[in-house]
Each structure stands twice: as structure tokens, then as C-alpha cells.
Design a protein that fits this description.
By secondary structure, the protein is an alpha+beta fold. It is built from 10 helices and 8 strands. The chain has 2 domains: 149 residues, Multidrug-efflux Transporter Regulator, Chain: A, Domain 2 (Orthogonal Bundle), CATH 1.10.1660; 68 residues, Winged helix-like DNA-binding domain superfamily/Winged helix DNA-binding domain (Arc Repressor Mutant, subunit A), CATH 1.10.10.10.
Length: 219
């Protein structure tokens, strides 16, 4: 049965821009490819496809992978970890399901150990407690039941900016209002108080939206 995870939300360039990774990097994660004369299978997708759109589940897993690669966790370990979870849980995108980090922690622990994932970057520890990376991932995603329904792109956990596939076509928003619209309004000279009043928002939401867009525009 199709779920929100199967929904095609972004083109590859759009997803790469939201994630803050190079389009070629995201394409490699999705499709695999040749590196230094060696052909590699995809990391996120179970197998390469002709599809050039990114599903919601793929976007969530790419967000997780981005955080680890920015900390130079070896790709070999990450690839094997995802493959092991996929095989054990029999779902194509295991990290877009909350189940592994709630009721499947033993599977996660075993997969981490077999993949050789460094203890510093494991999602659960030997006592089956969420580690800091595991807790950070859980909190960055909005869960509905066992499925990822939203993703918080800003690094600050207090931020009210969220990305949802069913709101603003998957574009960042606060309380259903596009952060880009708020930014453009501010660029026209409107104050935070004016923006909040016109959009029916709290000034706190406006501040988070502008902080997010200013950072994104500067990158």
C-alpha cells in the first residue's frame, strides 16, 4: 500500500538545494555510479532507476546521510548499515520508519556492529538507548505513526521551520506559510511585526523563517 513515503516530491536539483549538498552527490547516493574505475550500487535506493524525482522517503534518508558524511563517516560503513537494516526490516527505506529506533533497536545495534560503524556515530548504544546522533535524528523528523511526515531543516531544535510533503509542495514553511514568501516580504521593507500581522503568525515564527532564509541565501 502506497504511503506518504512513496510520494515523489522533488526533482534531484530541488532536493539537493534543500539538503545543502551538491546535485552530483545526491545523484550518486540515489543512483550509484563509477568512482575511480569501480562501479558502486546506490546507497539510498535499493537499486538504480530511471526516475529523476526524489520521493519523500529518499529525501529523509538523504538528510540523515548528509549529516554523517559531513562528519566524514566512511561511505562503506553507511552503505552496509542501510543495506543490513533494509534486509532485516524488509522495507526499502528503513530510516524513514521510526520503528527501527523505537521497537527495532536490537536490529539497529546488530547492523551497526556488523557494518563497523564507529561507536561515536551509532544510533543506539549497547544498552539499546538512543545516542546523541540517534536522538538528534528522531527530533529532526516529525513522525506520524511509524512514518516520517516532516523534516526540520534548521540546525537549531527550537526552529519552527519545517518541510512537509503535503504543505507548500514540500517547501520550507512556518505554520503553513512559505519561508521564502516571508523573506521576500521582509526584503520589501516590512518589519517583523507587520509580517506577523499580515500572515497571522507569531513574531517568533517570522524570526525563525528569516533566520533560515538568510542562512540559505548566503550559502
Amino acid at each position: 500500500m502506497a504511503t506518504v513515503l512513496d510520494q515523489e516530491v522533488y526533482t534531484e536539483p530541488e532536493a539537493a538545494r534543500l539538503l545543502g549538498v551538491a546535485p552530483s552527490t545526491l545523484h550518486y547516493w540515489l543512483q550509484g555510479g563509477e568512482r575511480r574505475g569501480t562501479t558502486y550500487l546506490p546507497i539510498i535506493r535499493p537499486e538504480a532507476t530511471d526516475r529523476r524525482y526524489v520521493t519523500w522517503a529518499e529525501f529523509i534518508e538523504a538528510g540523515w546521510l548528509r549529516a554523517y558524511r559531513r562528519n566524514r563517516v566512511p561511505m562503506r560503513e553507511l552503505r552496509l548499515f542501510i543495506e543490513l537494516l533494509r534486509d532485516e526490516l524488509q522495507v526499502p527505506y528503513p530510516l524513514a520508519h521510526q520503528r527501527p529506533l523505537v521497537s527495532g533497536k536490537r536490529l539497529v545495534l546488530a547492523a551497526q556492529q556488523e557494518a563497523g560503524l564507529d561507536e561515536h556515530w551509532r544510533l543506539v548504544d549497547d544498552q539499546l538507548m538512543l545516542t546523541y546522533p540517534g536522538q538528534t535524528f528522531i527530533e529532526q523528523v516529525t513522525w506520524e505513526g511509524d512514518l516520517a511526515a516532516g523534516w526540520r531543516p534548521a540546525p537549531d531544535p527550537r526552529s519552527t521551520v519545517i518541510v512537509r510533503p503535503d504543505v507548500r509542495f514540500g517547501r520550507p514553511s512556518v505554520q503553513g506559510i512559505s519561508t521564502l514568501s516571508i523573506y521576500e516580504y521582509a526584503e520589501e521593507g516590512a518589519s517583523r511585526a507587520e509580517i506577523a500581522a499580515d500572515f497571522g503568525l507569531r513574531e517568533t515564527d517570522v524570526r525563525w523563517a528569516l533566520a533560515y532564509e538568510n542562512a540559505r541565501q548566503a550559502s
